[in-house]
Write a structure and sequence with these properties.
mainly alpha; 504 residues; 3 strands; three-stranded antiparallel β-sheet
Length: 504
């Protein structure tokens, strides 16, 4: 009885406690939130500082770009702060500030693209707006709004349709948008404003000042060139493909003699095997950079009409290679694995193919970086072709020896993809060679006068010589010593002089 009574009391106490907590729940939660508020603010501040620091460390140019935007805005703000300038432009000075905000971009090419588009669109739309205003006045007070509305409708509709044209969409979309905006503002506001020409002149001048300020600051203060970024991006993508092929050979075809070492090496190469994935999503970035690079003036190693379209062609070939690598990557951790016996049979030609293709891609990436002739990659491309022939012979022998063809399907698939990747590398080499011709890349270092394939005895070069007469009392001999520049040895030649008169 006592135990049952005590248990009943404990249950009642628990129910009372839970009811009390439910009543005090909102107040307790609010008090807990207030107590943790300083800690939450601290965590938010710490995370914000870490994120900001990481952004600055990843690309210090971002910090400089922010400072450049602040400098440009400060300069155009003088139109308001300095009384003489404010008296000249008045409230229209705000258009200069707005221009800096919308025009200033990270790269010089993007800033030039937006600035020139805005200037040309504002000038043409302003002139057409003033013309439309004067034309509408010829129709009287009743006909003027009808004519203005009709002109706004026609030009806005036609301009909007041109934005669907791919070429205009890529390079002049922002200009067309500003054209529509400016024409509509000038023609509509001109209906209520008498001094339409003076208003258009002030706006055009302030927009020109804002755009010029953006361009000058962008070019003169730590410029960031879109063309240079595109150049580095294409070279980096090719390097990532080379790194994958270099690591794939050891990952899929491990050396049986040094199994543990290869396992450790493959673990270190895991990150390199994932680098190719960024190449798959580089199309939009490359096209954007190439578009902005066309607007940039000649700078550094890049002249004004540099073949930026060729970089897009190389990028397309690199992505084709990356797609094949992505298919190849699926066989590393696939459930359907070929027997190690079959792998060992094709290990040598396959690893040779991966190695030579990787070396070729690295040489091509270095050629782009240094803007030199890509002839150094030619020998590796030819060696990879030889590896393809060797691999085909091995596969034929394996397929004839084994009746179970299903067992060699994974190996055959890997070999087929490797062959396609090697052909992609060859196409990349040809495309980069074409780029080197169009961009006039400098020649590679001058080769030595002695070719490694030729024996040195066939290219002897005389450096100096000496003639020593030897008199032995009977015959006169002449010893000629020849020193060769490419090898330290002497060549001695003896010949006898004709006997002198009276000499036997």
């Amino acid at each position: 009885m006592q135990s049952s009574f005590s248990s009943t009391n404990s249950i009642i106490a628990m129910e009372i406690e839970s009811a009390t907590q439910e009543k005090a729940g909102p107040l307790a939660l609010a008090w807990d939130w207030v107590k943790t508020l300083p800690l939450n603010f601290k965590n938010i501040a710490v995370n914000l500082v870490r994120t900001t620091k990481k952004l600055g460390q990843d690309d210090p140019r971002r910090v400089m770009h922010s400072l450049k935007v602040g400098l440009a805005l400060t300069l155009v703000s003088l139109l308001y702060y300095w009384r003489p300038l404010y008296n000249g432009f008045g409230v229209s000075g705000m258009w200069a500030v707005l221009t800096v905000v919308v025009v200033f971009e990270f790269t010089v090419g993007a800033t030039l693209s937006k600035g020139l588009n805005r200037a040309c669109a504002t000038l043409s739309a302003g002139a057409l707006g003033c013309g439309a205003h004067h034309l509408a006045r010829l129709f009287g007070a009743k006909g003027e709004p009808i004519v203005l509305g009709l002109l706004v409708f026609l030009l806005a509709a036609a301009s909007s349709f041109t934005r669907f044209i791919p070429r205009i969409k890529a390079r002049y979309d922002y200009g067309v948008l500003i054209f529509i905006l400016t024409f509509s503002l000038v023609s509509v506001t001109g209906y209520r404003v008498d001094k339409i020409l003076e208003l258009a002149n002030e706006r055009l001048t302030t927009i020109g000042i804002g755009g010029a300020t953006c361009i000058i600051v962008s070019i003169c203060v730590c410029p960031v060139w879109a063309g240079e970024d595109l150049h580095k991006l294409v070279a980096s993508n090719i390097e990532k493909l080379a790194s994958y092929l270099e690591g794939f050979g050891g990952e899929y075809f491990p050396d049986p003699e040094d199994h543990e070492g290869n396992i450790m090496a493959s673990k270190g190469d895991k990150a390199l095997l994932q680098g190719y994935k960024s190449v798959l999503n580089s199309k939009n970035t490359e096209e954007s950079l190439a578009n902005f690079a066309r607007w940039e003036p000649g700078h550094g190693r890049f002249h004004f009409r540099h073949p930026w379209k060729q970089y897009l062609k190389i990028g397309v070939l690199a992505r084709q290679c990356a797609y094949r690598i992505d298919a190849l990557n699926g066989y590393i951790n696939s459930d359907l694995q070929a027997a190690m016996e079959f792998r060992n049979k094709i290990r040598k030609p396959s690893k040779k193919m991966c190695s030579e293709a990787s070396k070729a891609l690295k040489a091509l990436a270095l050629s782009i970086k240094t803007m030199t002739d890509p002839s150094a990659a030619k020998s590796h491309v030819e060696n990879s072709r030889t590896a393809i022939d060797e691999l085909e012979l091995v596969l034929k022998a394996v397929s004839l020896e084994n009746a179970d063809l299903l067992a060699i399907i994974p190996i055959a698939s890997v070999a087929s993809i490797l062959t396609e990747i090697t052909k992609c590398v060859e196409n990349i080499y040809e495309s980069i060679h074409e780029l080197s011709c169009l961009a006039e890349f400098k020649s590679a270092s001058v080769e030595s006068t002695v070719s490694p394939e030729k024996p040195q005895a066939q290219v002897l070069v005389l450096h100096c010589g000496s003639i020593k007469p030897v008199l032995d009392g009977h015959n006169d001999h002449v010893i000629i010593t020849v020193h060769v520049t490419n090898e330290e040895y002497s060549l001695q030649t003896e010949f006898s002089q004709p006997p002198k008169p009276g000499q036997s």
